[in-house]
Design goal:
It is built from three helices and two strands, in the order βαβαα. It has 89 residues and is of the alpha+beta class. α1 links the parallel β1 and β2. The longest helix has 11 residues. The N and C termini lie far apart (35 Å).
Amino acid sequence: MDAKDIRVPTLYVRGTLDDWSRPEDLQALHAELVNAPQKQFVVLHGSTHFLHLDRPEKGRAAFLQEMLVFLGNRQPAKEAQQKGKSTVK
């Protein structure tokens, strides 16, 4: 599959400590998502490639909040990260 075949809103999240996903990859994907109606790219500082599995204060809470915001819910991740916990119920 090519990125040009993606025709749905797309959220791309990477952590600054992610050794698998480089900033250049994010730029290339952004350029190739020509048919996505919405593209949002988020970089979470201090998070790794496995931020969805990490402790809330190490990126998981911010990751979950970014997903909720993208889906039209809740507060931005910056606020959740400051609290150090997820507000997902």
